[in-house]
Specification:
Elements lengths: L1 E9 L4 E18 L5 E4 L7 E4 L2 H21 L7 E8 L1
Parallel strand pairs: 2-5
Antiparallel strand pairs: 1-2, 2-3, 3-4
Length: 91
């Protein structure tokens, strides 16, 4: 996880504030099942696992689920309310 400090300026009021920005890359693990389906998992997020008919479909579905999990955590104050930069790396 990388942390960056950024200065945000509100030009209309002339107020400056310093906000912390967090950058995190999530690893996606992929495996092909015996029946031909693909399974994709984000090990850093418990329960974030999806099937797809193709590799790309499995990746797209697991990314969408991971983003929903992160949004839920932010909504329920289970994650820091900082500016968040998320990326995914398929293994």
């Amino acid at each position: 996880m990388r942390v960056f400090w950024k200065t945000l300026r509100v030009l209309a009021s002339g107020i400056s504030c310093y906000c912390r920005s967090v950058s995190h890359s999530f690893r996606i693990e992929l495996e092909r099942e015996d029946d031909g389906r693909w399974i994709a998992e984000v090990p850093d997020l418990a329960g974030v696992l999806c099937y797809g008919a193709t590799r790309d479909e499995a990746i797209a579905r697991v990314q969408a689920l991971a983003l929903r999990v992160l949004a839920e955590r932010l909504d329920h104050a289970e994650a820091p309310a900082e500016l968040l930069n998320v990326s995914f790396l398929a293994a």
